[in-house]
Each structure stands twice: as C-alpha cells, then as structure tokens.
Amino acid sequence: MSRRTLAGALSLAAALTVSAVPLAASASQQAVTFPTSKFPLGVPSVPDKKLTAVVPGVDEYDLKAGTSTDGYTVTVLMPSGRDYGQQTTAENKAAEVEAAGETPSVQRVVRPRVADASEQVVYMVRVGLWSFKDKAKASEMAKKLNDAGVKSRVDYLGDDGLKTTGPWNVHVVMIDARTFKGSYVSSIGASVAKRETVSEMAKARGAIVGVNGGFFNIHTAKELRGEPVGASVVNGKLLSEAIPGRSAVVLQGRTARITELKTSVTAISQDGAKQPVNGVNRAAATDELVLYTEEYGAKTPADGGTDAVLDANGKVVGLRAAGADIAAGTRVLHGSGVASDWLNEHAWQDWTVKVDTKVIDLRKGRALKLTPDLNVIAGYGGLVRNGHVRITAKRDGQDNITMILRRHPRTLVGITRNGSLILAAVDGRQPGQTVGANFQEAAQLMRWLGAVQAVNLDGGGSTAMVVKGKLANRPSDGGERGVGDALLVLPQ
Fold first, then answer.
1. What distance in Å separates the CA atoms of residue 242 and residue 455, rounded to the nearest whole number?
2. What mean pLDDT is predicted for residues 109-133?
3. Which CATH topology does 8-12+70-159 take?
C-alpha cells in the first residue's frame, strides 16, 4: 500500500452509518408514542431510555445508545486553515509530513449529496491512529509536526461524520396533540439585542419545556449579538425579517408546523410614497431603511442618518438625529443615505407613515395573520418533509462539509402525522460519551421518532433543553450559552 493512501485502521467508509427505518407513527395513529424499533444510528440497537412524565401530554425521554470505539488521529491543516482541500493540495501537504520524517495518509472524503446540493469530494491528510486512552500520544505527534512547521491538530474520529459506533446521548420531549392543554411560543428574552440562556427565558415565562431557537448574529457589534438571523415573530409581532425561502417553525396556540417563509415590510407615507424596509431590529447598512421596535433593547445606529419616531398608530411624533433609544409604545424608522433622504421628504412631523408587514408562508402561498398567538422561529436546515428525508442545506445556508457531514450537538424539531410536537437535543463534542449527529443522522433520528416534518435549529454549544426549570442535557460548552431566542412550551 502506498504511504499516501489511507492505512487500513484509518480507512473510514464514506457511507454514513444510518439505517432506513419505518416511521414510528402511522396514518391512523392517534397519539405520539416512543418507537419500538431499534435506535437507527450506528449499529442498530435497543437504546437505554428513562421516561419521565412531565405533565399530562408531555413526556421526556433520556436516551443512551451505541458504544465508544473511536480513537484519535492527527490532522494536517491546509494553507486555508481548513482540515481538507483538493487532492493536489493534500498531496503537497503529505510531502511536507514525509519531509518531517513521518508517514502521512491521504484520505478521500465524500460529503454526501442532499436534496439541494450535489456531493462534494475533498481530501484530508492524517498521521497515525491512537486508541481513545492514548490521546496524549496523538498530542505528542501533533506537537512534533507543528514544531517542524507543519500545522496540525489532534482530532477525535467520532467527530468526522463517517462510520462510528457512537455513543449517543439524546434528550427527547414528546408532546401529544390529543392530551396537551398548553401552548407553544417563541421568546427573545428581555430584548432582541441581548442574549439569554434558555433557562432564563423559560423561567421568565413559567415554561414547562424550553429549547434554544435559531441562529443569532455573531458578526455584529457585541452588544447586539442576540439578534436572530432569520424570521422571528413573538406574539404576532415581527421582530426580525426572514431570509427568503429558509425554513421556519410556525407556532400558534398548541399547534406547530414547519414551512418556508419570506417577509415583506414597506413604509407607506400619507402622500402615497412607498419605500421598502430592508430590515427589522438589526444594524443598518448604507442607504438602508430599518425598522426598530421597542423590543430592540439598544439605540438606533449613530451613523449620521435620520430617525422617524412613530406612535402606535403610525403618526410621526418626531424626526431626530440617529443614535437614540426606542421609547415604549413607539417604533422608529431609521434611514441612512438615500433612505434618510426619503424620511426627510415623506415622514414629516404629524404625518402618518404606515408600516405594512407581511410574513408569507411559501408552502401555502399566503400571508400569515399576525395575531397575538402567532410565533415564529427560524430553522437552519430542513431535514424531513412529508415523511421522507429531504435535507435542504443549500437553501438554509448550510451546504458545507462542517454542517452536513461533521457531527455536532443538534437541536431538532419535528411534527408527527397527527400534529404532535417532538423536540430533541442531541449532545455532542464529548469524546467517549456522545458524538452528536450530522444532518443525515439527525434526519434519520427524527423519522425514527415519528416526525413527518423536521428541521434543524441552532446547535453546537447553543444546544440546550430545559424541563421544569432544570437543564436536561449537557451543553458542549460545559454550561448554557446565551442565545438569541427559544421555543417554549407553556402550561396554558
């Protein structure tokens, strides 16, 4: 065997270790029930499970399945800083390893095809294989290579997303549509701008169960990083615009469903002039018109633009320089550049400016009614549609190896055929204890649990499930992370 082909012990099959499993729920089934078939990931097995009846209609399951057999290897980083690259780049890196006196292996990795993205083939360079207990030896090799100028790191093979035996720790809450008498809502906590833990948001609302919601913007100013990335509706009020066509969880009363959304917000002056509103409760770019609501929790941008302060009826109660708070009971249309000019021309003192807001359900082809019981959380990766695995990674901005193939902690939402709700928190990034899931595994897990529709929410260190005031899972950060929003299950 060539020194630059993957040695037998490191030969990891690109086929994902998931099994085709029947749906747990049949068309005639009237209640959500835990599946009786084997756990579908890795080597199919009967999982250890602990059932806790939370309240009537709400059951919590603590699942453990699989065994730890993965060890460690050393991965050589490419010039881009990534751990994979094209074959020529990998061969060049392998030559550097040889020059340092070690034996490299070049691993061909296939990121599988999904519903809206074709497969991707990349190459990794790896050195050695050590058992789980011998991580220190892998660290010694990584140090030797780094000292020789070959940037490397130690990797746990269970994180790769290829063949594994686990283990998996999964926390599942099943909410029976027949018997549950409460409701579902979304929460952004005290404000849009501020991040809070799921525990804090659940406590504030007296929630029975809470899980983290969608992604939040880590690429904005530090004090604004609670801002949801994508659609957020709380109590019928749009607090963050949708990224058109991406997945979302729509909550209304005690019903939940998964769809794709787009939003349309337009400012209409009493003189008939119209101007698109580019965003809601986020930092404004040049020439943008952005709407800020009292839930924002921060000042409007001090960018030299203009603020038009509106009362509850849309009356312009004042024009001011940008960079001030949003008072209770008001909204602010903020414009910079040409949008500022539009406000100065069409939002005069005591004029009325209507803010026309539409949240459009793309599956149904019509706008949602923005009633007080409507709540929306943005999803990030469609997993199951109409009972079949249908991973829409590209549409949801996740069409890359890290999100599709690699294993991470996952927060998942599923809907059964009779409208029952399934929430799952898959713990990960804890070698020897739990490996997490990739997109394919997450989809198979939700089908196994009985979901006919399912979506991925934010994961990684954000994954958190709180049940009756207690953190049920073990977040990979070692404790709860502040997040942008949460899905809460209320007793009423």
1. 16
2. 97
3. Alpha-Beta Plaits (3.30.70)
